[in-house]
Design a protein that fits this description.
By secondary structure, this protein is α+β, with helices and mostly antiparallel strands. The protein contains seven helices and 17 strands. A hairpin with a 2-residue loop joins strand 11 and strand 12. It comes from Alteriqipengyuania lutimaris.
Length: 251
């Protein structure tokens, strides 16, 4: 039977949708023997289920999916966007303990920001919604402001609108503009839609610039604005619905 003919979804997808963890993290949890069905440890993330009844994580039953909630967090520099770091560095979850409201569910980051990148990071309890915003095919815009050492022309930046290939990796459309110069540095605003690993830094380095500060200022319609560093705010359900509808309508 083909995957399209099977009834249900893979357990990793269902658990991510229920807000247990990201699909990748669920796969690690399965490998560690932390997930079971009816008391029997799940051995593969390819297990297909129609529902989560009888599924436990660390011996605790998985609750039914909660309504989608979305939070905007101003990530400071010096935090890892992960639940844990093998090198013992602080993670966003250390900061979120005090930043999120007490009734906040378990949340997952939508996309990632590098250790030294700061700015707007969206967090949700809905794995399906997270995937919707992350998929390059949905072209959800992310805007950054980069402070970089070196010289670059507006013409060079405008050429990025056609995309660029660096070391065999193609980066799609980038809308980039010079903002201002401060001493030997230049501030550049860039809007991307793919969010590939270290995309902004790699593209600017390819142009001969040395990025010394990078701030994400927007993700889709949501702006960093004056949200204090290290703080989080919940996004209204109405705005979540509008974004979800706009993405589905653009397909």
């Amino acid at each position: 039977m083909s995957e399209n003919e099977r009834q249900g979804d893979r357990i990793a997808k269902l658990l991510a949708r229920a807000g247990v963890a990201s699909r990748r993290e669920v796969e690690r949890m399965i490998a560690d023997g932390r997930i079971a069905i009816g008391g029997k440890v799940v051995e593969t993330p390819n297990t297909v289920l129609e529902h989560l009844r009888g599924v436990t994580v660390d011996g605790k039953p998985v609750a039914a999916p909660e309504p989608t909630r979305l939070f905007a967090f101003h990530k400071p520099q010096g935090l890892i966007v992960a639940e844990r770091d093998p090198r013992g560095r602080a993670t966003i979850y250390d900061a979120l303990r005090n930043a999120l409201p007490k009734d906040a569910p378990r949340v997952m980051p939508i996309g990632r920001l590098d250790f030294n990148t700061e700015g707007l990071l969206l967090l949700t309890n809905d794995g399906g919604f997270k995937r919707m915003l992350e998929l390059p095919a949905n072209a959800v815009e992310r805007t950054y402001r980069a402070r970089a050492l070196g010289e670059v022309s507006q013409a060079q930046l405008e050429s990025l609108i056609e995309g660029i290939t660096i070391d065999g990796i193609h980066y799609g459309r980038i809308d980039a503009n010079l903002e201002r110069r401060t001493g030997a540095n230049q501030w550049i605003e860039l809007t991307i839609t793919e969010g590939k690993n270290r995309e902004v830094r790699r593209v600017l380095e390819h142009l001969g610039l040395q990025v010394n500060r990078l701030v994400r200022t927007a993700f889709g319609p949501f702006l960093l604005g004056d949200l204090p560093r290290g703080q989080a705010v919940e996004i209204k359900k109405h705005d979540i619905g509008k974004l979800r509808s706009s993405i589905k309508g653009a397909r």
